[in-house]
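Long-time lurker, finally posting.

We've been working with DNL-type domain-containing protein (Edaphochlamys debaryana) and I want a structural starting point before designing mutants. I don't trust myself to interpret raw outputs, so I'm hoping someone here can both generate the structure tokens and explain anything notable. Sequence follows.
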Amino acid sequence: MLEPIPQDLKLEVKPEDGSSEPEYDEASKVVRIPLSALEGPENKRRTKLVLFTCNKCGGRTARMVNPIAWANGVVFGQCSHCKVWHVLSAPNKKIFEEVRYKDEAGMQPEEADILGAHPGGRGGAGAGTDAAAGTPDATQGGDKQA
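Top reply, 14 upvotes:
Generated this for you. Predicted structure of DNL-type domain-containing protein:
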């Protein structure tokens, strides 16, 4: 389910600190984006701002993502609070399922456990997204760490 964009959400330029990741301050409802996130050839692909809420810790995270991957591929994002990885967008289910379950039967048991492919559980990750992000959860599984 899409969450509405908060009415009092503000965007600010973040002072350069060597990181090109945006920050979200929930107390003041401010997204701080460093200029380096928007400059340079290596960052031209990540132009869509996504805010998501972690299903594990409830923390809110802002990330810049590739809009083409968002619309046609798979986008994963890591919670900035508890470091859990989430599927933020997976509109092309064939790509997602093929990658996720490609060789489940041929995996070594420890690989299957790491990837969440063990019998009795599908593994996976999920996170709620905001209207700024554009789509709801791609999966209904539990969270996993990478």
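Before you design anything, note these points.
Residues 10-129 form one domain.
Residues 115-126, 130-146 have pLDDT under 50 and may be disordered.
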